[in-house]
Amino acid sequence: MAKGDPGVSTRSRRAAPRSRKGTGGDPELVQLLTPEGERIDSVVGPDGTVYSVDFTDEEYRGLYRDLVLVRKLDAEATALQRQGELGLWASLLGQEAAQVGSGRALRTQDMAFPTYREHGVLYCRGIDPIMPLGLFRGVDQGGWDPNEFKFNMYTIVIGAQTLHATGYAMGVAMDGKTGTDDGEAVIAYFGDGATSQGDVNEAFVWASVFNSPLVFFCQNNQYAISEPLERQTRVPLYRRAAGFGFPGVRVDGNDVLASYAVTRTALDNARHGQGPSLIEAYTYRMGAHTTSDDPTRYRIASEVEAWQAKDPIARMKAFLTKQQIVDADFFAEVDEQARRESLHLRERVLAMPNPEPVTMFDHVYPNGSPLLDEQRAKFSRYMESFEGSAH
Amino acid sequence: MATETLTIGKALNTGLRRALENDPKVVIMGEDVGKLGGVFRITDGLQKDFGDQRVIDTPLAESGIIGTAVGLAIRGYRPVCEIQFDGFVYPAYDQIVSQVAKMHYRSGGKLRIPMVIRIPFGGGIGAVEHHSESPEAYFSHTPGLKVVSCANPQDAYVMIQQAIASDDPIVFLEPKRRYWEKGPVDLDAPLADAYPLHASRIARPGTDATLLAYGPMVRTCLDAATAAAEEGRELEVIDLRSISPLDLTAAYESVRRTGRAVVVHEAPSNVGLGAEIATRITEECFYSLEAPVLRVSGFDTPYPAARVEEEYLPDIDRVLDAVDRTFGW
Ligand SMILES: Cc1ncc(C[n+]2csc(CCOP(=O)(O)OP(=O)(O)O)c2C)c(N)n1
Ligand SMILES: [Mg+2]
């Protein structure tokens, strides 16, 4: 488990320290680990912020483990859908680093508002990975308690959760829970497509005006189903923040270290009362939009291959190998753990019972309603009227 | 006469193609309608053939789609907007209810908004939340809007063209679970001679009770009528086609003959279309009725998890149960 409080843990750097503004390839991109697995010691962001991480070897290994596990569990869910065990699945393939990096940057007291694709963040929050599978299997609406895990329900309606996150963050500020090291911060996840929604732009306005302790975390995976980024914007997304009056930064979303560093900094700024910021995690959706989608209709194979070379896990593996912070068995052991956990997930999904039909009347209102009580009673009598009915 | 067997989806696609060919002012706009051809492929191939000025992939914002379509309409275009799923129309609700619906009235008749808002609606495809809703009552309750739904390929082909040609803003509800159902479509019959858009039609004649439905539930009612016939009961099925305005002339005539009526829709019953239809039938046919007009509908809950949608949705058994109750009165 990577916690990595910069300045707290002991340094374990083996590469010669390097520091630069952005990276050679893209000066706008904060990157601490190149696709080849080279470590960059620190990077200066567009507003002069210096980004770096200071993980122990154990923490580096933990991040790698997280990345492999969330990818494997995700692949298992895709396989389950293919076999008819899930109705649908929205894969995070390719976005593991953005999710694990930001997810591990959250402190226990921080609250997250996800879309429908944040299985990696959910994992980092300590939620059983089976939880979202109920929603996609069609047996429940998604099972965890948002307040217990500080991770709200998945939100499918594009952009809506950014306003919820903003309101929650306003509440944090109203409760006086900012301004200290142990203050609270909030993170809102959304996609590149979502940036076009009115709700998201209104969230920007609100968060700015009320100086809310909020991090807008946009995973720019280059597509909104079939529509490429150019359908949503003519400027890099992170620059939109300036117009709303708060800082924006673009991070290499396939770099778990940089994703961690920029998110940790943004969250800490928020918890200290310095207001909202926008992170654009520049990444790529390696798979289909969901299992219902056929991406060959709208994008070419060479584009996917080019991103394959920037794989978030391969670069972490290269780094760990080069820096010799793993022993010979480590990678095999992680793979084995991933295999075990995904098998365990599969077994439990297959055992998930269908809900009793009458449960559809539950939870519509906290204290029931006469109309529904009557409908439920009629429904039960109707179901019982069938011969040999199990109901 | 070129009659072809098409699915409802393909019939809509062909109807849209016709509309684009026949009127250069027709434009299609929505999320993923271009290269992808829409998530249900209803606009498949249209951008390729008509270009990206006429088949427009919009940014991801429903209020933006409808709001800009209003402007295009004022400018003389005929926008055909696709809302990807029923549950995603609500970000555009303000534009539809406050702007689209009222523009003609507010301008004293000087502005027309000849817009079609296509929405795949209803359940039955095992989808996750927000993908199976039946929002027709929200729109039918709004003066200035018209609301229609097709139930077979022939109507899909004709009604989409009629809706586009109409000067009214029309919410066009497509029964998504029926997209793959096939039937004959006469592709050459002139639009001018077609059956009127806002008229109901007897889908199956019968003598013993009247079933009233639109969109996806027409098939359910036809299947129920087939099952009832095996037990010696002849049910008349009326496909309402137009939800607002409602055309109940055939319904009144039918109920005066049968004395019994059951309204079937997927949407929850509370303050729904069934209530309106039952009231009007009661007002018009009171002395012919042998039993109260009954409703079979979705329950007054949010659309449930996919694994219980079969129990939520009206099916043959629930329809026939209601018919039985009208006989037991
Ligand atoms: C309001 C709304 N409109 C349309 C949809 C259908 N839809 C689901 S995902 C999606 C694309 C989202 O793209 P993006 O925000 O980039 O997120 P990504 O899926 O790439 O993670 C669309 C249009 C929706 N869920 N909600
Ligand atoms: Mg995207």
TrEMBL record, chain A:
Coiled-coil parts of chain: none
Lineage of the organism: Bacteria, Bacillati, Actinomycetota, Actinomycetes, Micromonosporales
Cited Pfam families: E1_dh
InterPro entries per UniProt: Alpha-ketoacid_DH_E1_comp (IPR050771), DH_E1 (IPR001017), PdhA/BkdA (IPR017596), THDP-binding (IPR029061)
Organism: Micromonospora avicenniae
Every Dehydrogenase E1 component domain range: 67-343
Superkingdom of origin: Bacteria
Protein name (Swiss-Prot/TrEMBL): Pyruvate dehydrogenase E1 component alpha subunit
Record field: compositional bias (Basic residues): 11-21
Region of interest (Disordered), residue spans: 1-29
Cofactor(s) needed by this chain: thiamine diphosphate
Annotated GO biological process: branched-chain amino acid catabolic process
UniProtKB/TrEMBL annotation, chain B:
Pfam families hit by this protein: Transket_pyr (PF02779), Transketolase_C (PF02780)
Keywords: Oxidoreductase, Pyruvate, Thiamine pyrophosphate
Cofactor(s) required for function per UniProt: thiamine diphosphate
Signal peptide coordinates: none
InterPro entries: THDP-binding, Transketo_C/PFOR_II, Transketolase-like_Pyr-bd, Transketolase_C
SMART domains found in the cross-reference section: Transket_pyr (SM00861)
Domain Transketolase-like pyrimidine-binding: 6-181
UniProt GO molecular function: magnesium ion binding; oxidoreductase activity
Protein name: Pyruvate dehydrogenase E1 component beta subunit
Organism the protein comes from: Micromonospora avicenniae
